[in-house]
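Title: Prediction job returns without error message
Component: structure pipeline
Severity: low
Priority: P3
Assignee: unassigned

Description:
Job completed but the reporter wants confirmation the result is attached to the right record. Sequence as submitted:
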Amino acid sequence: MNVSVDFCGIKFPNPTVVASGYLGVTGASLASCAKNGAGGVTAKTIFMDERPGHPNPTVVAFPGGLINAVGLCGEGIKNAKHEFEIYRDSAPDNPIIGSIGGKNLKELVEVAEIMDTYPVDMIELNFSCPNVDDEMGRPIACDPLMTAEATKAIRKVVKKPISVKLSPNVPDIGMIAKHAEMEGADAITAVNTMGPGMLIDPKLRRPILANKVGGVSGQALKPIAVRCVYDVYSAVQIPIIATGGVVNGNAALEMILAGGSLLGIGSAIMSNDMQCFTMIVDKIREYMEEEGFTDISELVGLAHEN
């Protein structure tokens, strides 16, 4: 059973990719994921300057998944190159995606231009994080014209493949994905966390997160994410990194059948440790053998034919 994926000309040994988030801060932590079965990895979103992020608590588990307000902490693009070099030396056969953000379009373009010179295989444009809405204004991914403008500007300065990361908090994600494709996006990442949401501690009678609100991920997000991937696949011809609640093999299969070629894994690492990558890939292989498929590409988007 061939589970390797050719994605925008980049070879992934299997479809699982660490989503941008908790484990993407250091090259060593990302390399550990690759050594434990991840087909590829995505670094945590990097801005131009160092960002402290939000105070703790920043991540809270609840029965339906996770809620987080980490706040896109990071050391800034100019200080991050060594982490990509550490990863590249440790896991040369597993692609790495550099995720970028910016407080405005000018900064986004500048960060993208620098990232394009780093040892990454692809660049993910985080247009959709809900946790910095009060700092940056309306997320780019909520507006098709803003998405198009930003994609076009970055495409002019970046030679490597780019994937636009979209938000589930929109009425027509397919239209927004189409605008990104029209302006040069090579792929779509669908989706970021939904929300923001809130959890309240009844004993303390106050929100649990220090930031009060945060993005919702995990199983609570999965049905929405599957629908988003399905809609994006219907709207564009470029491939999709499907992410949002891929916590087990069945969820992974849903995402692939909806149209995802790669699978962004985040919350599953928290609940299943590093075993999640092997567990998910084994389930995909088992399904392929039972249903008579020999290549994982045969599964992508099959839900649209049935």
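Comment from assignee: result matches the submitted record. The radius of gyration is 18 Å.
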